Amino acid sequence: MVDGLQAMVHVQPWTAAELAPRLLMWAVMMVAMMLPTAAPMTLVYAAVARKAAREDRPVAPTFVFVAGYLAIWALFSVAATAAQSSLDQLALLSPAMVSASPLLGAGLLIGAGIYQLTPYKHACLAHCRAPAHFISHRWRGGFAGAFRMGLELGIYCLGCCWILMGLLFVGGVMNLFWIAAIAVFILLEKTMPFAETGARVVGAAMIVVGLLSLAGLVALG
Predict the structure, then answer these.
(1) What is the pLDDT of residues 177-217, one digit of tens each?
(2) Which candidate, 126, 122, 131, 125, places its Cα nearest to that of 149?
(3) Of the candidates 97, 118, 193, 206, which lies 20 to 30 Å from 200 by C-alpha distance?
């Protein structure tokens, strides 16, 4: 207990020079993880844009729509960096950016598992899984309209996936295998048949593993 308190005392706040690369790391990681999961929606928008161009009524380029989507994840990167800084100040992260607290790791797993079972999670997931419906019902013209559509998609995607990003602190923020596993899971949730049922099953499994960790029967990290 004393050693833990001493460790907390010696944790130094991040300087501006340390903050910038960590924010950049999160931003790059979010783009790498989340842009592929938006591919179905992006392809539908691109198809609409091509058709409009052939009919001589061009719409905003696809990159404007994508920029709106990525803007949401850029904002999330700021929040994730702040969360990492707070956990670091509390001496809850190892140098490898993995949870140094069994309670934190188990809590993140249980929290993510519970969220997987909530109606809000599945309402957001439903929007992400229906590209044609989303584009047709939320279409807005012009550059501002395309950017706003991207923002709305990003908000639904964030509502679907935000807590899964907390699991990066369980497996390691710099663990490429763990990053890829979470990204693939999110992609499958958005694209595969029966993915909603699968999301609930995985959520229940997260809760079980988290509870086993709290009981000392499973080691995380």
Answers:
(1) 999 999 999 999 999 888 888 889 999 999 999 999 988 87
(2) 131
(3) 97
* Tokens matching residue 124: 């957001």
Domain that holds residue 54: 18-214
Structure tokens at 9: 């005392």
Whether 34 maps to a domain, the answer reads: yes
- Residues 73, 154: contact at Cβ < 8 Å? yes
With tokens 């499994």, the residue in question is 205
What is the C-alpha to C-alpha distance for residues 167 and 178, in angstroms, rounded to an integer? 9
In a domain, 13, yes or no: no
Query: Per-residue pLDDT for 106 more than 60?
Result: yes
Q: Which of 6-10, 108-112, 208-212 has the lowest mean pLDDT?
A: 6-10
- Asked whether 37 and 157 are in contact (CB, 8 A), the reply is yes
Q: Domains in the chain: how many in total?
A: 1
8 falls within a domain? no
Q: Which residues of 81-100 are buried (b: 16+ CB within 10 A; e: fewer)?
A: beebbebbeebbbeeebbbb
Are 200 and 117 spatial neighbours (Cβ–Cβ below 8 Å)? yes
| 37 found inside a domain | yes
CA distance 60 to 154: 18
Tokens of 90: 């509390």
As a whole number of angstroms, the distance between CA 111 and CA 210 comes to 9
